[in-house]
Structures
1.
Amino acid sequence: MDKQTATKYVTIVIDNLEGGYYHPDMKSKLKGGELMMDSGETMYGLDRKAGAPGVTVGASQEAFWRTIDTYYGKHHADTAYYADMAAGKKADIPATVGQTLKAYAADIILQLFNDYATRYKLDPSAAQKIFSDPALTLQFFYAVYNGPVAFGKFVEVMNDAYSKGTQDARALYQLLQAKRRTMGSGEYGNKLYRTGADKIDQIIKKYFGLDYADGTASATSGGSGAKWLLIALAAAGVVYFIIKK
């Protein structure tokens, strides 16, 4: 997949499932800040502390955090910058910064996708099917954020179904969603996955006009944007802690 297309999908994930800026110096000042646990400085779901070296080492990785230092370095403890998306809402951070950061983030996620696909032996034909359908593509780009172990589980589902003759994109998507809704450690972890699955159903309908939902949406989906963002950022910290392992 080319970087321009990757940027399109990663931007959708960032805008709808991940979120903006966070620094540990904000934790004690945020209501519900304990959800962030040991998360490090985070932007667009990429955790500088727990995600090392995958999200810190490399040309795009270093450029990403160098840009963060330039524009957010003086705002580590300022909760007014919490969840900022670098979308031009802060006078000292123009929207062009967000565009640049998202391009770097897309390259990082694409690198991780390729790494995980190789590590967990994603069938080349199944990979072609994934990239031929926007819902499947989004599903697997978001799977990168879920960490390598989770990504491997999605690969198992995809490889198994595809090898047995299931090639309909909607059917494959529903199998992946069914798997997603069973994942996560404990009630809290499982809720994150179930809520994420519900949001993916909504996203593919909004952006691609695809109604692949199987009617099993969780009653716990939705909620305030700020609350979801806090949970999403906390989940990102967990994801990249797993990556580090």
Note: The first strand starts at residue 42 and ends at 43.
2.
Amino acid sequence: MTNKKLTQAKSAKNDEFYTQWVDIEREVQAYLDFDPDVFRGKTILCPCDNPYESKFFRYFALHFDKFKIKKLIATYYVVSSIANTELSLFDDESEENKTTRNSHKIEITEIPDLNKGGAVDLGDVQWLLSCNRNHLTRLKGDGDFRSEEIKKIRDEADVIITNPPFSLFREFLAWIVEADKQFLIIGSMNAITYKEVFPLIKENKIWLGVHSGAREYIKPDKTMQKMGNTNWFANLEHGRRHLPLPLMTMAKNLKHSRHKEIRGKKEYDKYDNYDAIEVPFTDAIPSDYDGVMGVPISFLDKYCPEQFEILGQTGVIDPDDICIEYKGGRPYVNENRLYARILIRKKQSEPQ
């Protein structure tokens, strides 16, 4: 899906794009590699996840014992065009027995191994949800995460993991932050620039996950949709963000950079309206420059907080920031308007 289509979907509140198992597994594994006990003894809440369709719920249910999870809870907004489709967790469940017509809370505290095979498989989860109904509770409301009912469930959780509606990303993140919860969620790359999001990144309270870029998501009609520039956002530690970028000096960049926009120039461009140099590519950041640099927002994929300090972003400048804002806040070079930039500066003592 192109960025234009992603914006159109957001504007139309067409938020029903469902995450594939492979993307969930690949991202979660990075946190487990850093800390195998990251979920041990934790209550995980998936608050935008119908358990009959959600790959998030299915993934954590099937790894419940392996990850030593204390409790897994899933709730969902009842107004869903995907409800009662073949994406049900129970492919062989009869129409009259489905519970997706009303909003429910699924709560798992134990997954028995009925097949005596020594491992939890999908058959065990089927039994847990379809036979042991004391783990299934009908909600009083419609399951909207903003309701007081779901807030109480949120307050019980330790970690929130889901793919929230793109159009409600600001509200959803604020909903998590106000409760001071750990989280791993998906959002648009453009969310980095939101005034509600960027200060949290700048203050190192949240960061990008390990994997980003275009992914294919499941649409309500069960077809696949490619979407550009989506990211994982987290405050769970994954370790890879502390790896410093390997960089060349300014002189070597000007002579050897693989980017024609840099190679062969006498010097880096300076902004007309900011006291900073323009660095159009993350791998072209000069290792020996101590001043302020403007870099693309995609820099945050490689951002090491021990290597660089984030000062601000063009267009959203605090009064105390060192840069001067005019012409709408976007950077200009030789009167040519550029894309939004993040303003960074190298830390004096870089990680070894």
Note: Residues 3-241 form one domain.
